[in-house]
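Hi! If you just cloned this repository, the fastest way to understand the data is to look at a raw example. We've pasted two of them here, unedited. The first protein comes first, obviously.
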Amino acid sequence: MELDGRVAVVTGGTRGVGAGIARSFLAAGAEVVVCARRPPDRPVAAGGREASFTALDLRDAGAVRNFFDAVADRYGRLDCLVNNAGGTPYRLLGEGDAERHARVVELNLVAPMTASLAAHPWLRRARGSVVMIGSVSGTRPSPGTAAYGAAKAGLESLARSMAVEWAPEVRVNSLLLGMVRTELAHLHYGDEAGIKAVGATVPLGRLAEPDDVGDAAVFLASDRARYVSGAGLLVHGGGERPAFLDAATVNKEG
């Protein structure tokens, strides 16, 4: 398989998109370590193999450094870091103070930088790679999640700079995600009818599944992407139909 003998860490890999990424790496043959503040409800597994779990607060730089040293000591190498941990509640800017919004930036931008710096010595030895899990929210207005969008825009910029500074030993790329159907999708889109209606707005006709993201991450971590670095791969099902096309009165029948 494509990642036989490789070792990967997936932050926030216990549920949702992160679990999908971890399953795809397991299916591709990698040894996978997932970390999060709380353990998964059930082991993250694929193909009869399980990811190992470590409890970790990514905001604790010392603990993060110790974690990556422990991974390298256990497996003897580290080939890929997937910076997936992140997220945000819906909150308009005026409904929260600056400190509350800053915590969103810390989780979605500062924590991936902390993890990447801690992992870098081991990734350099293995000539490995970093995959940042970004969002289309960083490329367009993000009302209700402005701090999150700003952090994701910064994350893509960070990835491009890292790709230059850490070349040629370490490749760094981003996946820019659109809407993904996870166990928390109902919090964003409503009931099944709402999820289906939202999916219908995507050119490919559905929300992404976590495994769709995982397969893209495996590609970026594999030798098939050996000349890909500093790139942002859109995983959004074709994007969004421009609203003005439906508002315009020209080129419409009847």
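Ok, and the second one:
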Amino acid sequence: MYVQHETRHAELATHMEELVKSAVPWVEQVTGLPLTHPRFDLVDIDGLATAYRSFVRRQMERDTAGLDLTRWEQARLLARPQAAEFTARRAGMSKKPVLIATSIGKPSTLIVPEAAGLYRLCETPDLLCDLLVRSLAQQAQVIAGAGQVVPPPEWPKIPAPSHPIVQLSEGHARWTSGRVTPEITGITRPSRHPLAKRLASSIREPMAARRAARASALVDQAVKARGLLAFNAVWSTAGLAPTRDEFRHPRRWIARMPLS
């Protein structure tokens, strides 16, 4: 486990490291997924933008390998990483954890502590634990599929928050945290601390929260119907993730899932 940090965030990094060590076995048990070498990087906005640009470039190279692109598509391909960096700087990405992966599917979660007052999360241990557990669940998804399913492809366009794989990933992370965070913190209800409310509103927008709740319910239904082993095939099997229509009709997706 590795937490990279700037000197002024050493206290937060130390606290995160302690929580991650406690959380990893629980996340592995609840999800049925291995969590080898989880990584968190505490960065400033420049560090986030640079890392995200490199991640998008790697994703684009992977997604377009072997394709016969037109000159216009090649120009789009070259411009996309720079556009991703601009998005990271300007579009509020720094207010929430950002999942990236290397070319061989090794995940890392980027966090900008100053962006939403995250350096004060030590005051709200349940919220910090929730953030870390969700991030660990998403890293486990990447590891399970060697980065082939999560994060989703960036070409021909960067996936929106409503992308089925994005929804499933975040819903699974929420489902995992609902089972792991109370075991670690002993707190069964989210913190009502004013800081917690402000941080939660900056990290999770209302529409994203509704999508994640719907996806979390879908995960719970699928795991109960098919079991963890069958469900986890979704992270390594192309085309097995639910479609947008199947989010509205869970039984259709469960019907085409493999049996344990």
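That's it. A detail worth noticing about the second one: The chain has a mean pLDDT of 87.
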